[in-house]
Amino acid sequence: AADAFDAGDAAAYVAAARAFAAALAALGAAAGANIVPPAFDAPARAASAAGAAFLPSGAGGGDAAVWIGLAPPDPAFDATTSAHGFSPLRLDVDLRGVHILEVLDG
């Protein structure tokens, strides 16, 4: 993935993300750990069919996931994830990087 990123090859980066997701699932199966829960199977297949990747983000275990693709997910993918208990959180890359949008009191 790092080589694809450095080369600016977005399609190779997405392919590397799919390979990483498969490796995470294999590691979890070998270790008897639920790194990639079964609820990820159908959304991951749908993402792959759309030329994207869908995989756990963070420590694994299924509490957060990420779509990595050349285009945003379509409504059919959203329906697939919703059917498997996922709730979308739309995020975008911002040219300014991380910054505060709003400060909440409390």
Key terms:
106 residues, mainly alpha, two-stranded antiparallel sheet, 4 helices, 43% helix, globular
Fraction of residues in H or I helices: 40-55%
Strand-pairing-aware structural class: mainly alpha
Order of strands in the sheet with most strands: 1-2
| Percent of residues in beta strands | 5-15%
Run of helices and strands: HHHEEH
Total helix count?
4
Work out the radius of gyration. Answer: 15 Å
Characterize the largest beta sheet: strand count, sense, and whether it forms a barrel. 2 strands, antiparallel
The unreliable regions are none
Look at the structure and give the mean pLDDT.
87
Identify the overall geometry. globular
The CA-CA distance between the termini, in Å, is 40 Å
Strand count: 2
